[in-house]
Amino acid sequence: MNSAQQWLADYDATLARAAADAKASGAALGQVSGTASSPRGEISVQVGPSGALVDIRLTPAARAMEAEKLAQLILATAQQAQRRVGTHVMEIMTDYLGDGPALDFVRDNMPVDAGEPEPQDDDDFFDNPRVIV
């Protein structure tokens, strides 16, 4: 086999590996979800791979909350689940893409993890709310 044929064979093998990796990472991403519950358990949410809400459950305690506080708690809980799914997506994409500009693009479009500690209880959350955009 001459060098051009060998180069083409190697290139075909590289493309086949990339296609297999893309298929495997796509399948793994399709299985990703994130869940979170409020500190006192009034709310539980589940988000899919894109961070979109898939399920939300409210206990009777949540139904007794004031509407504004309930809305804030739902948003905070959903954001926690989105950060979790973002972490899983980043792990999968790091394995697939490696470090570089493509991974930077994925990272830049993930939910921001501000590094803030989770609220210890609802009173702490409502006394020190985060800005939700």
UniProtKB/TrEMBL annotation:
Keyword Cell inner membrane: no
Pfam families reported in the protein's UniProt record: YbaB_DNA_bd
Example GO molecular function: DNA binding
SUPFAM superfamilies membership: YbaB-like (SSF82607)
InterPro entries assigned to the protein according to its UniProt record, in alphabetical order: YbaB-like_sf (IPR036894), YbaB/EbfC (IPR004401)
Keyword set includes ATP-binding: no
Keywords noted in UniProt: DNA-binding
Protein name stated in the entry: YbaB/EbfC family DNA-binding protein
Taxonomic path: Bacteria, Bacillati, Actinomycetota, Actinomycetes, Pseudonocardiales
